[in-house]
Amino acid sequence: MATGDLFNSNHQLKPQFINGDHKSDVFARSLSLRRQKIAQQRRSLPIASVEKRLVEEVRKNDTLIIVGETGSGKTTQLPQYLYNGGFCQNGGMIGVTQPRRVAAVTVAKRVAEECGVELGQKVGYSIRFEDMTSISTRIKYMTDGLLLREALLDPYLKRYSVIVVDEAHERTVQTDVLLGLLKDVQKKRSQNSIGSSNNYDFVKDANNVKEGSNEVRKFNPLKLIIMSASLDARGFSEYFGGAKAVHVLGRQFPVDILYTAQPETDCLDAALVTIFQVHLEEGPGDILVFLSGQEEIESIEGLVRENIKKLSEANQKLLIFPLFSSLPSEKQMKVFTPAPLGFRKVILATNIAETSVTIPGVKYVIDPGLVKVRSYSPDTGIESLIVVKTSKAQALQRSGRAGREGSGKCFRLYPESRFEGLDDSTVPEIKRCNLSNVILQLSALGVDDIIGFDFMEKPDRMAVIRSLELLYLLGALTDEKKLSDPIGRQMASLPLEPNDSKALILASQFDCLEEMLIVVSMLSVESIFYVPRDKLEESRIVIKSFSSPEGDHLTLVNVYRASIEFLEKNKTENNNEKVEKNLRKWCKDNFINNRSLKHARDIYKQIRENVERMGLKICSCGDDMLQLRRCLAASYFLNAALKQPDGTYRVLANGQIAEIHPNSGVRRTKPECIIFYNLVQTTRNYVRNVTRIDYLWLAELAPQCYALKDG
Ligand SMILES: Nc1ncnc2c1ncn2[C@@H]1O[C@H](COP(=O)(O)OP(=O)(O)OP(=O)(O)O)[C@@H](O)[C@H]1O
């Protein structure tokens, strides 16, 4: 490896001496030490002893199922073995899908480091709104949803010689759709194969045949690998026509599993007690706690902070890091930085840290055994999040996060008898979610018969019908259930939920696309406002200055505009770092989550590029937001609700009763008729992100839904 490569690598090291000529020497030496350590770690992984055999199996089988213990090295090593085994010759790529963004990003970083290359070159990642790849990328980690999107532009996925579907046991809705699609792509590619499966010489011209041309396409066969630590190998093998399954035996380090003697009634309290028990009684090592959501994480965070203060000074060296999906990625990445010497990290995470992720330093896992999942009722059309028990597969993945760099311990906050009673695997998401996005994407891929699509497990018929109805009402599907042109096609090309895509398309007709881009971007991130517990009253007054009496969507526009105005004013600074610093202060003073706002700005930029490419007219409605409200009514008409005499709201489309969420700016004024962005079900039904509309607009702007019923 050339020295230049070493210096380009994406390492975390900092030289210890920084004066004089020693600087680069010391730097190179510590880098070389780290590389030696990594090489040695790689060699000691259980999967290393079967490298040759695995490559051979992939050569011999077009589809292979690989089951191996957590931490055995599947995710990080297999793609490198295949690369070295010649599967990327002449431009083919190895694509590895992950159910979660954080895993795709962190694993890509690690593999780039292991290969000694700069991230984004030979090894890269691609997730929604973030592409870290280049033409040189050969090993690409990505979310399963992203590969689905790629299939829209490249139905034969011809850039890929191998696709690895990692953590397939999670059975996210995207994984399930992807599996059906990959099966089909694989069949089509082998029918038009340029040679045997052993031949991995990509024939350039054959792979560059234009879509839709009459030329005979010739492709390399697509190698497909399905991988997990806790897989129902038989089910997957049957689905793939008796595909071969191989097991990688052994784990690198043992993990002790401990259970409670009795069931715990208060899981949060049990988690809190266990955190301090580990901190005060166990040896060095970081703690990873699995919690069901942001709310639980924030409440435990507060409690841990309070309790730390009660400890002796020597014991106060405990650092807390939250980790959940709506946390901006820079903040998520902080979790992966080692704690300073003498400190212990406690990471409070949702199940985004459950699979594939290695958090350096973690030795202890605390698992209350609960997880928040999507649940969908085809009867009401309401999608909600509910907390359920994990499956055995999930419990296994969680304990697998300890013991990655040495032996570990996992504290399950329930008795062993409960573990025995858990389901083996999680109910596939496709059985419990709104399918409109999936159907839209499949329609764009030419799959019109959703019920007949080769799913590993069929979705609920009623859920399919509901989603078809929604897409039809949005104008995305024709009477024949085919993708409409241009609306449906345009909607499918945007990386958003169907409702949001439709809102953008309509907004260009309502001359408020500029504002709708802001609304959709701001709604794509969670919690634009950040309110510390001890400043509730002060924050309320400040936030009110952005607040629009007409509704929360408009408030979001106000916040965004104010931040842009602030940035414009500071432009003269000519110093980006200073501008960013000023903006951070501005956000802090205004109780705005700086990271969320930045994230929203990035998303805005990307969707704006998308709609520009589609040729939509971008106009601003200025200060008169009437058009924006009308456009919201025209797009989110199924989320319209009317005030009831008791102050609650009745959702017109399905009769559900809900209250306006306490965080909404119109909770007090209670408009007669509202449009909301989402309905969440906790102990009560709450509608969030609410804006006032005129009831009469519904029949005018959404006659397909309201003219007959209420006209
Ligand atoms: N970012 C990292 N920092 C330090 N070590 C890492 C990192 N990523 C991976 N490793 C090491 O490589 C080992 C193998 O990780 P890998 O993700 O390939 O395993 P896996 O078999 O895919 O596990 P899982 O099923 O849990 O995803 C880990 O146990 C750890 O020792």
Describe this structure in words.
The protein starts with a helix and ends with a helix. Helix 21 (552-570) packs antiparallel against helix 22 (576-589). It is globular and about 70 Å long. The protein is built from 26 helices and 21 strands. The strands form 4 sheets. It has an 8-stranded mixed β-sheet, with helices on both faces. Strands 9-16-13-10-12-11 form a 6-stranded parallel β-sheet, with helices on both faces. With 711 residues, the protein is an alpha/beta fold. The chain has 4 domains: 21-207 and 216-248, Rossmann fold (3-Layer(aba) Sandwich), CATH 3.40.50; 255-430, 3-Layer(aba) Sandwich (Rossmann fold); 494-619, no CATH class; 636-711, no CATH class. Residues 1-21 and 196-216 have low confidence and may be disordered. It binds adenosine-5'-triphosphate. Adenosine-5'-triphosphate is lined by residues 45, 68, 70-77, 106, 110, 229, 252, 355-356, 358, 360, 400, 404-405.
Secondary structure layout:
Blueprint: H1 3-8, H2 22-43, H3 51-60, E1 63-68, H4 74-84, E2 93-98, H5 101-115, E3 123-127, E4 130-132, E5 139-143, H6 144-153, E6 160-165, H7 173-191, H8 204-207, E7 223-228, H9 233-239, E8 244-248, E9 255-259, H10 267-281, E10 286-290, H11 294-309, E11 318-323, H12 329-334, E12 344-349, E13 362-367, E14 370-377, E15 382-389, H13 392-399, E16 408-412, H14 416-421, H15 436-444, H16 461-473, H17 487-493, H18 498-509, H19 513-523, H20 536-544, H21 552-570, H22 576-589, H23 594-613, H24 626-635, E17 640-643, E18 649-651, E19 657-660, E20 673-681, E21 685-692, H25 695-701, H26 703-710
Parallel strand pairs: 1-7, 1-8, 2-5, 2-6, 3-5, 6-7, 9-16, 10-12, 10-13, 11-12, 13-16, 19-21
Antiparallel strand pairs: 3-4, 14-15, 17-18, 17-20, 18-19, 20-21
Helix pairs in contact: 4-5, 6-7, 10-11, 15-16, 15-17, 17-18, 18-19, 18-24, 19-21, 19-23, 21-22, 25-26
Bound molecules: adenosine-5'-triphosphate.
